[in-house]
Amino acid sequence: MNLEDINLQKEIKIVFMGTPNFSVPVLEELIKNYHVKMIITQPDKEIGRDKEISFPPVKKVGISHNILVLQPIKIREIIDEIKQLEPDMIVTCAYGQIIPNEILEIPRLGCINVHASLLPKLRGGAPIHRAIMNGYSKTGITIMYMNEKMDDGDIISSKEVDILDTDTAATLHDKLSILGASLLIETLPSIINGTNSRVKQNKDEVTYAFNIKREDERIDFSKTKREIYNHIRGLNSWPGAYCLFSGKILKVWESYITDNYYQGLFDGQITKIYDDGIGVKVSNGEIVLTLVQPEGKQKMKATDFAHGFHDEVLIGKVLD
Fold first, then answer.
1. How far apart are CA 298 and CA 259, in angstroms?
2. Phi and psi (nearest 5°) for 231?
């Protein structure tokens, strides 16, 4: 890229909307290559018993680069501020609010979204979790134009990644965050010069990745060992899958499946204490829990949890 092209890029005024860690690499690449005039993110939160104020990760980036950061409770509150800025483009990435049409119509180059799935698959707020939980072998990043519907706009570009059997929501999150940043920077010049693709989504292929609810976190041991394995890793490292042991929550962070099959046992019944975990009977075999977190305690090896009860006491107990 020559100096003239670099100068033209720096003249493009961008408003960025995003909130969590996933958005940070995208924002940082935009700041390196374009003129980010304003950052819009969610309000600060109070955390812990002491109610300490926690900044959204995107806000921290904005402060470090001396960029104006706005944190409206509702995005409509700052329509006038966005209009006054006269941005050429709005870029969103995991912002967390639906953008109204009045804002979508402001920038001359449109509103662009970085979404963590291969649209039209997995529209919604939890595409990374759901990709693993649903047993997908591939996912990716889509750069798209925004409209008022959730992840419904025309596709500009996309790039896929394999979901490895060892991936968790945490590892896939990091892969896609980096991919999203690079694909956006690769795609933006074509949007600016008007040569980009614009493909409508196939409505017949739409699936949804709704936000994770508490009931989605509970392990159903009547499912297959593969479904349960995907469920556990799809919720690692947040919010975590769980079951109940003696009426108390037992979070499960890591596991593996075996070829063992047990007849005459209930789904969820503990089969054996292994050197590296606790075997549990499921619909079509056995899954071994290796990293758990008892209610009110820190994460621990499942074997340490088992030894606290004496191994033989646990065998035959039921997790539900």
1. 30
2. -60, -45
The verdict on pTM exceeding 0.90 is yes
Residue 90 pLDDT more than 80? yes
CA atoms within 13 A on the CB side of 25: 15
Question: Tokens 């483009």 label which residue?
Answer: 89
Q: Residue 1 — pLDDT band, cuts 50, 70, 90?
A: low
Handedness of CA 171, 174, 179, 184 (dihedral sign): positive
Among 44-48, 114-118, 199-203, 239-243, name the one with the lowest average pLDDT. 44-48
Q: Domains of the chain (ranges plus CATH)?
A: 3-205 (3.40.50.170), 216-314 (3.10.25.10)
Say what the pLDDT of residue 304 is: 94
- CA 174 from chain center: how many Å? 9
Q: Give the C-alpha separation, 263 to 183, whole Å.
A: 50
E strands, the chain, are 13-18, 35-40, 45-47, 52-54, 68-70, 89-93, 111-115, 138-145, 155-162, 241-245, 248-257, 270-273, 278-282, 285-294, 300-301
Mean pLDDT of the region 149-170? 97
**DSSP 8-state class, residue 292:** E
